[in-house]
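Memo to structure team: turn this sequence into structure tokens by end of day. - J.P.
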Amino acid sequence: MWEFGRTLKMAAAAVILAGAWMIPAASADDKSIVLGKADPIVVGSLQSMTGGTSTFGQSSDKGIRLAAEERDKKGGVLGRAVEISTADTESSADKTPLAVLKLIEQDHVVAVLGEVASARSIAAAPSCQKARIPMLSPASTNPKVTKLGSYIFRSCFVDDFQGVAIAKFTANDLKLKRAALLTDIRNDYSTGLTKVLEGEFPKLGGEIVARESYQQDDTSFKTQLTNIKNAKPDIVFLPGYYTEIALIVKQARELGITCPFIGGDGWDSDVTLKNGGAAVEGCYFTNHYYSGDPDPTVQAFVKRFKEKYKEEPDAMAVLAYDAANILFDAIDRAKTTDGPKLREALAETKDFPGVTGKITIGKDRNAVKPAVVLEIKNGKYNMVKRIEP
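Reply from structure team:
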């Protein structure tokens, strides 16, 4: 990693000496790159464009680019165009540090939007913090993410809120008291939600009757599911990503497990519906928004997204769209792209009118905002409840 940074710096020096471009000198204690007034404001999009969770990254990047395009049509940010530079994490926490360094050292971004997955945001955060480049994750819900530095933000709710919402909906709305837990033990998102569920559900009169685990890319879950079946739960907590959800639930049905499964926002993908089919009918998950919400703001966004990309926007698309607009608003208020001042403006975000609701950056740089509970019914997602913070 050190060699990568050294190579980039040597290459940049060579270009400067050749007179191809000029960057005004920055003070020794200011890592930000000062751009000329005519230059675009470069914003990083750190996404899983390829790999296991590529739908997350691709949707997020589309949301960010739509926000930038709309902003440019309104005159840009500080009178300058917005340029989005995307770096692919390849759905790998191990490859994320190199991807974020590319944005910081090569592309000279003023801020980073991403990553979606908590584990990858955790991997990216130290580099952003060291460079004093604000990082705003649209969708990483693990509480650890924003604890990694004062320049690390999120514009989504945290698992402390989402996990409590799942537990309360199960106990109070579904009236179910016996739950099994099936956790992806190598996924920070999954283990974080599991911890909250284990602490909250018993407080509501519930009981965890079985605890089983798996790992991303596993294909057989029958041993764990057989143990769960023998425990006779009323419901199964499955806080994982869409990459395994459909297969797990299908194998559960094959073993005769008929109870519903419930998870978090990691379920949100067309893959869950397409691969899950009839098996996922009657299952639930918490999410950030519902595309069928009659709210005019939601429907206007859905229409614009469909017109541009010819597809329905999932939660990752709208979360990234909101995050990009929060960043643009913060730059406007800061009146500069200087890292420390932009950090302060992001921290002061209050009641921002996002598509997913009013967003306030609260304590520890976490967003305070509502959630929804969706049910899979007739091959579609249907909202059954909105949960306010």
